[in-house]
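Let us begin with a simple case.
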Amino acid sequence: MAHMADLSPYRYGPAEPDVPADKLLAVGWLDAKFRYTKGDIAERDVVLRRLRQLAQKPVNITCGFHICEFCRLKSYDSAVSAKQVGNGEIRVKGANGVVYAAPVLIAHYIERHAYRPPSEFLEGLQGLPELRRIVIIAALKREIRPLVKNWSKEEFSHEGRRFSCYESDYAVVVCGGIGPEYSRRAAEAAVAKYYPQLLISAGIAGSAVPELHVGETIFPAAVVDTRDGSHHETAINHAALSKTPLARTVLASYPEIAGSAQKRQLAKSYGAHAVDMEGASVARAAQLHNLPFLAIKSISDELDVDISQLNRFIRGGKFATGAFVCYLVLRPWLWLKMSRLARNTQLASDNLCAWLRESALTNTILPGTEEGTRGDARASRL
């Protein structure tokens, strides 16, 4: 990568017709052979977040990668050093028509090598609107298909694992897989990539009480991790919806699909109204990164419905559909039960996505935004 002194004329890529040559200045084009300015940066986390958001849509992308010369890496390994390589640039508008051209590696230089860009560049960065979207963690796409059917799809890697995500202007859905460990990995990957303003665990759940029926949607006030008994409060307690029965619920996260007897026991032990597999893991990630957290769950199976036999078809965070179909073909006495479960799951998915559109994704659920009042009209019978 070419070395250019900070605030010198940018000369690496093609000329930009909308910016005069004397107004397009270089920032952050570091080289191990040259000294650079080091120092502390006010609101460093905000600066890094905005730089990485700009880096999600780089310009002047090259075919190859430039490896950070200060890290002394010998080769590019995406699983280990994704932040230590770059193949594009960002643009930041400054005062008096100046535009600063920087490599996407500038965030890495600040974070790992104490680089301090010129004050003019930092001032221009502060003027940028900060895009911090809502991030929803779901187990499978089928649970949130009605919501994301027209969203753009992308795949990304984090710590050697690939994730599917669906993006809109205001929210991102990351599908991590079934189970607590897969949801934890997805939540960590999503936080690292998107720096969200809110983390949501959304999906279907089983009822642990007779009053909660198929298709009803809840916003639990607390999530309990049944593996260790830890208790996680949700941000719903600070929203208008907290005044409705929808939010006066407790969700228990169990490491596998709970049968009827297990659901009753979880209700008795933890005061749970519903049972899922992923909510507590997402709550832990939110707590670790000091982010507000919500759980939004729609009921797919009632208290007396036992579907724990489906556990045998969960493999590596995915549902083995082919194996399940083969199993089902030879057991016609299960056809009616599974057909009913499929309809109930679709109803739960439809209602879940409707709630997401109407409340969380339109920013009408948390303080500081227009407060939603729809919860009173659609409160469940708890």
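The second case is a distinct protein. As before, the sequence precedes its structure tokens.
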Amino acid sequence: MEASVRPLVAQPNTLKLGGLLVAGGAVVFGGFRVFHGDIPADNAEAALNFLQAHPAYPVIHIGSILGVLVWAAGFVVLLGMFTDPVTVLLGRLATACVLTGVAVYAVDFTIDGVGGHDLGEQWAAASGRGRDDLILAAHTGFTLLRGVSLVAIVILFCLPLILFGVALGRSGYPRSLSAAGIGVGAVTLVAAVALIFDGDLFAGVIVYGLLASIAAPLWSIWLGVLLYRRSTANQPDLPD
């Protein structure tokens, strides 16, 4: 096996640090997303009741953002593990998507966390016409954030996994890892784009919950653990 497809041996410190950051960030992000729960955004009144009963809503959103930042830092570090010109380009494109996606995601989740918390408190204290106004405000807010949140998922959890998955496959990493990254990214991409054009096409929890909050973090944990283990291994070859 050529040295260009053996980055695990050539750059063990890079792989170890990058693997820890990617896996650790995925654990933090996924954990906070599980605690977030599935808000019924298609029903404004039900969503307000959900927010009213969710006092830790802003904390969960801040924690999710911190997890994504750590996860993104891992991809920045791992950019140095590629040496072939094509994989370097793919890695750079993936990193650019991750950094852009983090910015969009942070804005989206900050608005959602702070605004949702305030709406929940106002809902608890309101009555009569005041509640009608809050239902309208919540419906408008969720409508505006739907597009932003889905675009954030496309840039942050779809394109990077596809690009990085291809780069991993070209660099001699396990085909199963490469295929899983490409598959999760592609399925999430199709589903997110479909919801952008028709929010009632299927349940949003499939994209926000199953794909972006579970499948993508699990793949990232797999990647991080593999890189960390191989960074300390003596064997140069990577099993499929």
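Residues 1-10, 234-240 have pLDDT under 50 and may be disordered. The longest helix spans residues 129-170.
Keep these points in mind for the review questions at the end of the chapter.
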